[in-house]
Amino acid sequence: AQKITQTQPGMFVQEKEAVTLDCTYDTSDPSYGLFWYKQPSSGEMIFLIYQGSYDQQNATEGRYSLNFQKARKSANLVISASQLGDSAMYFCAMREASGSARQLTFGSGTQLTVLP
Amino acid sequence: DTGVSQDPRHKITKRGQNVTFRCDPISEHNRLYWYRQTLGQGPEFLTYFQNEAQLEKSRLLSDRFSAERPKGSFSTLEIQRTEQGDSAMYLCASSRRQGITGELFFGEGSRLTVL
Known about the structure:
The structure holds 2 protein chains of 2 kinds.
Chain A: E1 4-5, E2 10-14, E3 19-21, E4 24-25, E5 32-39, E6 46-52, E7 60-61, E8 64-69, E9 74-79, E10 88-96, E11 105-106, E12 110-115
Parallel strand pairs in A: 2-12
Antiparallel strand pairs in A: 1-4, 3-9, 5-6, 5-10, 7-8, 8-9, 10-11, 10-12
Chain B: E1 5-7, E2 10-13, E3 19-24, E4 31-37, E5 44-50, E6 53-57, E7 65-68, E8 75-79, E9 88-95, E10 105-106, E11 110-114
Parallel strand pairs in B: 2-11
Antiparallel strand pairs in B: 1-3, 3-8, 4-5, 4-9, 5-6, 7-8, 9-10, 9-11
């Protein structure tokens, strides 16, 4: 079963508008972290925002916020006031407390295109 | 620049040849990860080092793949007898913090094309 599901292969948004990128996850571990990364065409994965499973409040980092709904197992990324430079692939990822490597497990990504 | 660096950035090789990629993590990071990313997909975990010890390997890491981190600093990923299915971006990441909160810092990747 997929641990991270991103159902939107591609999204378009007008410059200066807000956009929500969907992410649902599957885990039986009560302790986990959720991450969003941005991958521009250059290839580097850029960390955006983190949400812990025990965090009471939704995470925010500048124009990025995470709409965390634990019961629904969703962790949607909201980008406010989109800019042309936000055009990139966006990946949701999860890290579970169990397991020695504690590696990130990624979804398949959403390609965001910001239109002028 | 003190980020994660990978070399080479691009490698084109013929099927059957061996290739080696190098990763230099951020200097104070003791945890190092290798991921593979194919077109249109998210990165998939390959292997993990804590200092020089390779603590976990994915089933994706066939016996043609070997990774080392001899002195707990840089790491190499070697693919022997390359196949066309090995064509992918190989990403290296490093981390300092233990536990679930520490984000991984990624390099720009090494893109492999096997002809």
